[in-house]
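Module 6 notes. Inverse folding takes a fixed backbone as the condition and produces residue identities as the prediction. Think of it as a translation problem where the source language is geometry and the target language is the twenty amino acids. Below is one complete input and output pair. Work through it position by position during the lab.
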């Protein structure tokens, strides 16, 4: 297909910095293509998250209201009730992830709150729904980030109540780590691509693959990596 310019319908005139994700977009049960984004506004230079969407397979696009102040890189999951939960990097100075819900597909957003269970060093994170095969019936949320006030301790967390709590977690790597991306693999295992290193988080890009059951196991390998 030919390249098309869609800036006018996806970006307000006073937005300067602009980025998608980073991470994946999702398709809602309605068929809507939903892409988490973030931007900075001229004058205030305030970072805010927002979403863009398409209801016709990408032929036309629209954007919604900003989610809230001091939010930035973000990922979204559609909840079972049809609302969409946005999980965002936050600059409130409390080292916690910000969250907000939309009930109208991204046009407007509810109150932004901080998730006390999701510690962050003000960094990107990955947030996805895991829907396993019919043989296991799993339908849960997964989250990965450096679970620390520093960019270290890459960790994967699991929620069985649509993000209300995160009682299951497993450290994948104890050392310096930063951005990550979760994916459900064809065999229903979990894939995690992430930045890591010995002295800096940005020395290597590493891929870990593990069965969902590994998250609930108490033992880790000697290196602290997924097995």
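Target side of the pair, the amino acids:
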């Amino acid at each position: 297909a030919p390249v098309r310019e869609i800036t006018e319908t996806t970006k307000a005139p006073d937005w300067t910095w602009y980025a998608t994700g980073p991470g994946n977009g999702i398709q809602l049960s309605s068929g809507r293509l939903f892409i988490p984004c973030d931007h900075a506004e001229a004058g205030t230079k305030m970072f805010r998250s927002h979403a863009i969407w398409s209801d016709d397979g990408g032929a036309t696009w629209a954007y919604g209201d900003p989610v809230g102040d001091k939010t930035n890189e973000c990922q979204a999951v559609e909840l079972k009730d049809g609302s969409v939960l946005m999980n965002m990097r936050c600059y409130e100075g409390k080292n916690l992830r910000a969250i907000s819900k939309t009930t109208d597909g991204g046009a407007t957003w509810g109150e932004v709150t901080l998730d006390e269970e999701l510690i962050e060093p003000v960094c990107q994170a990955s947030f996805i729904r895991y829907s396993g095969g019919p043989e296991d019936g799993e339908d849960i949320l997964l989250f990965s980030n450096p679970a620390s006030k520093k960019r270290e301790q890459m960790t994967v967390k699991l929620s069985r109540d649509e993000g209300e709590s995160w009682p299951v977690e497993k450290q994948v790597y104890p050392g310096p780590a930063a951005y990550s991306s979760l994916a459900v693999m064809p065999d229903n295992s979990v894939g995690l691509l992430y930045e890591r290193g010995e002295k800096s988080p940005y020395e290597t890009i590493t891929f870990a693959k593990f069965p969902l059951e590994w998250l609930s196991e108490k033992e880790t390998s000697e290196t602290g990596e997924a097995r």
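Reference fact for the lab report: Confidence is low (pLDDT under 50) at residues 219-224.
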